[in-house]
Amino acid sequence: MSAPLGILVAGIGNIFLGDDGFGSEVIRRVPEHVEAPGVRIVDYGIRGVHLAYDLLDGCDALVLVDAIPGRGAPGTLHVFAADHERLTAASGLDGHAMDPQAVFATLTALGGTPPDTVVIGCEAASVDEG
Fold first, then answer.
1. Phi and psi (nearest 5°) for 23?
2. Who has the most CB within 10 Å: 44, 46, 63, 127?
């Protein structure tokens, strides 16, 4: 295993499902010239297995940027720490799912350990096609 990568900022979501594309859109809008030593910014879209494999390389911290179920006003941002014990126990290995539960379950099944993770979530208004 190589040395930790520092901080990985991962945009996730499906751009074809309305607000579910929030994470990908945020990453797309980060100017290309922005450089921060030790920070890697990646749009994973719906490639959850790819994210799990990248996490096998190790990183000091993970920031997930994602849409979250609408339980409040659409567009409201929430920042919270991921509960890895609950997330990895609640989901089995699923190579086609992108949600954080599936990513962390896949990572654990591959022998990895989830890094400290902060989620930046935006309340979704609609995750319908479009």
1. -60, -45
2. 44
Distance between CA atoms of residues 15 and 100, nearest Å: 17
Instruction: Using alpha carbons only, give the angle 95, 99, 103 rounded to the nearest 5 degrees.
Output: 50
Q: How many Å apart are CA 11 and CA 71, to the nearest integer?
A: 21
pLDDT tens series, the chain, 130 aa: 455 579 999 999 999 998 889 999 999 998 877 778 899 999 999 998 999 999 999 999 999 999 988 778 999 999 999 987 765 554 555 444 567 888 898 899 999 999 999 999 999 998 888 7
Helices 100-109, 48-56: axis angle to 10 degrees equals: 50
Token pair belonging to 116? 């400290």
